[in-house]
Amino acid sequence: MLTDPDLEQAFAKALEDHEFAFERFFLARLFGFEFAYDDETCTVSLAVRPWMHNPRKSLHGGVIALGLDISMGHLLNRTVGPAATVETKVQYLRPVTGGTVTFQGEFIKRGRALHHLQSRLFTEDSKLAAFATATWAPIEPKPDRA
Question: CATH code at 113?
Answer without folding.
Answer: 3.10.129.10
